[in-house]
Automatic annotation (TrEMBL):
GO terms for molecular function: magnesium ion binding; phosphoglucomutase activity; phosphopentomutase activity. One of its GO terms (biological process) is carbohydrate metabolic process. The keyword Isomerase applies. It holds the Pfam family PGM_PMM_I. This is Phosphoglucomutase. Residues 1-29 are annotated as: Disordered. The lineage of its organism: Bacteria, Bacillati, Bacillota, Clostridia, Eubacteriales. Residues 455-496 form the Alpha-D-phosphohexomutase C-terminal domain. It comes from Thermaerobacter subterraneus DSM 13965.
Amino acid sequence: MSDAQQKGHADRNHSQSQPQPQTASVPATPIRFGTDGWRAVIAEEFTFANVRRVAWALAEHLEATGRAGQGVAVGYDCRFLSDRFAAAVASVLAAAGIPVLLSRSACPTPALSWAVVSRKLGAGVMITASHNPPEYNGFKLKGWFGGPALPEETRQLEAILARQEAGRAGAAPPAGLDLTEARRLGRVEEADLVGPYVQQLRNLVDFERLRAARLRLVADPMHGAARGVLADLLREAGAEVTEIRGEFNPSFGGLAPEPIARNLGPAVETVRRLGAQAALVTDGDGDRVGAVDATGEVLDAQRIFALLLQHLVEVRGWRGSVVKTFAGTRMVDKLAARYGLPFHETPIGFKHVCEYALKEDVLIGGEESGGIGIKNHMPERDGLLCNLLLAEIMATRGRTLGEQVAALMAEIGPHYFQRRDLHLTPEGKNRLMALLRDDPPARLAGWPVEKVDPLDGYKLIFGPSRWILFRASGTEPVVRVYAEAESPEEVGALLDDGLRLVESATR
Ligand SMILES: O=P(O)(O)OC[C@H]1O[C@H](O)[C@H](O)[C@@H](O)[C@@H]1O
């Protein structure tokens, strides 16, 4: 990168002796990276001392992999103290002699990722707990390619953390360099990460087509890091936009910033009241997409994934393989087969999609949770880009999203989906998983189980269009039960019977 990086690199050898260790107790629970990064409750486990520990371990990891000199981008979302945690990360990395590009303001996660890719940095750190409730914060690690660090990399980082903690015997990690001093030494450079990212989105989306359509839209960033950014882009694209939940509000108005039906009441209400053509929604850090149709019905990410795949192939004429994680809809399998595209299914976590994107030409990769990434950008989810493409679909087809889904289902068959999140005790969770492993039911809701797939949790499969999956979340203390079938009633029946199974296993 810039001079700052160069200087920081040159200073690196002298820096190890500068930071002065402070004394503090060892964290009660070991720091673990879950489905995507380390998440914890603010002030309980997510403390400045622990954030510094993770940053210090990251510095060692980057030295070991030879990427330290390339520098690290550090960004943050709109959560409580996120800017301060990001500054703590920057100061520790700077103390280790690593050049840091620190975001000047809160930014969406894909903007941070784009900074890593476009400036060819060694890694990225995003302070965010994504879609989790307001009491959480987190540390997402991005690899040099912009996407979530691969499983092997997070394992190495955890191992370094464990070793450093054992060796440190109660002392806190170095406090880091004072930021003013770090800036003076050229080890920390502050920059606008949003502007260059917005420019990249302009290159990827058909703004002319959007301008001609003059859509009426609601933009709902859920008080998250895409606030202002998505709405401004849509306005630039000629849409008449009403932004809701765009104020800075680290308590997220009492709803978790996860774009699923139970949190989308305000978007549904606004679409209905204004007669808008859709609401386009992003999660707390802008890497997930959600939407509400003109009818006020929530469009889940399964349908969004299918619409985007269809658009990229049929309208853009793009090709490449299709990757979905384990809870993804069968619509995607069907479309990949219909278009003759290679198809892969992975465990949950976009890092697994990234593994494919790094070794082959992936057209689109995505998840039930709303994290979807496309080719010609970066191997990373991008909620803003997906929303702009949804607008592009409406503009191209001259239809609402709901009408486009209906047209698609008329071609490939009906697909309905629902997810329930259950708060079980750790023992309850273990008993449920043991039952599914050792003695899964032969039937559920009247359908015979054809296969049990243990790729991530346990998926009971009933033919080509019905399944139910039981799986422990890696980011929240819940067990998720996902089901897909041919009608909402069938999904309801599967979930009811699935929940009875959970009850009997955990009683
Ligand atoms: O179901 P969970 O383990 O909580 O994971 C849900 C999601 O969490 C994070 O957002 C990850 O980045 C995603 O890849 C994953 O799909």
